[in-house]
Design goal:
alpha/beta, 60s Ribosomal Protein L30, Chain: A, Alpha/beta knot, 2 domains, four-stranded mixed beta sheet, elongated, disordered N terminus
């Protein structure tokens, strides 16, 4: 018995061509202008711009001018081994404006932009940053009982956005972040926060220890949220002026900041997983503070 081929392109009979060559492709018979065959995409066509493209400033002189004009620099990258007569002027400008920078390989700069970056690329922050040392006295004049969140190197954009969103809902007056080693305040972060990053004052500081010491000198209690604490978060009196510290996703609050805290408080854990997501933990602390403060205001 003759075997029948299972091939998709089997011949109808031994003396005929394969059926897929019997006629012209069906789309050649169509006359409609609106009909388009399933051709391969044209690789030469321009691709759409990414939705969350950040504003970049490239070149030494343009970066200097951007800083002089008051633009908020979110991140500044300098090519390793860069030799330029303007480099010393740029570094002096960065030092005067207290803007950190990072040396990176030229390949990283090439990936960020296809233009002539001259070894320097800066990212413009989409929000206006504040100085905590300057903002706290103003805040105390408006409200003698401030509540502020300090984020110790939160690196996940979604966690950052979620925390600030909750902070805005819970009436937190400011959020403090480090100027290096923290999630970038990008359009993604703003979207995750539902726009709260545009409403809550964000204080970016080079030294978090200075922030804590200044807060304590200004009459604020410092509470560190850590699972290693023996004290329950419910035993803290949040009706006092408070600076709440939340730690990074992987290592928690650094030891040098823990030593400066007045209180260390933990959330109860009853399951086998011994930690909560930092944005969830921050929300619990913030709403306990809100509950206490609204309760005291009603008395």
């Amino acid at each position: 018995m003759e075997k029948t081929s299972n091939s998709k392109y089997a011949h109808r009979s031994d003396d005929r061509k394969p059926f897929y060559n019997d006629r012209k492709p069906f789309y050649n018979d169509r006359k409609s202008r609106d009909f388009k065959p399933f051709n391969k995409p044209n690789r030469s066509e321009s691709k759409p711009e990414p939705k969350n493209k950040q504003q970049l400033v490239c070149g030494i002189r343009p970066v200097i001018e951007a800083i002089d004009s008051g633009a908020q620099i979110d991140r500044l990258l300098i090519q390793s081994g860069l030799a330029s007569p303007l480099l010393s002027e740029l570094k002096a400008t960065l030092h005067e404006a207290n803007i950190p920078f990072q040396y990176v390989p030229v390949e990283k700069l090439d990936r960020l932009t296809h233009g002539n970056h001259q070894g320097v690329v800066a990212t413009i922050a989409p929000i206006q940053f504040h100085s905590f040392l300057e903002y706290l006295p103003v805040l105390q004049l408006r409200n003698d009982n401030p509540f502020v969140i300090l984020l110790d190197h939160i690196t996940d954009v979604r966690n950052m956005g979620a925390i600030v969103r909750t902070a805005e809902c819970a009436g937190v007056q400011a959020v403090v972040i480090p100027d290096h080693g923290s999630a970038q305040i990008s359009e993604d972060a703003i979207k995750t926060s539902s726009g709260a990053l545009l409403r809550v004052p964000i204080c970016r500081e080079p030294n978090l220890k200075t922030v804590i010491n200044f807060a304590k000198q200004s009459g604020m209690q410092v509470v560190a949220a850590t699972e290693k604490a023996s004290q329950s978060y419910l035993t803290i009196d949040y009706t006092k002026p408070t600076l709440l510290i939340m730690g990074s996703e992987d290592t928690g609050i650094s030891n040098e900041l823990l030593k400066l805290a007045d209180y260390r408080a933990a959330l109860p854990i009853r399951g086998e997983v011994q930690s909560l997501n930092v944005s969830v933990a921050a929300a619990i602390f913030m709403y306990e503070a809100l509950r206490q403060r609204e309760g005291s205001a009603e008395e």
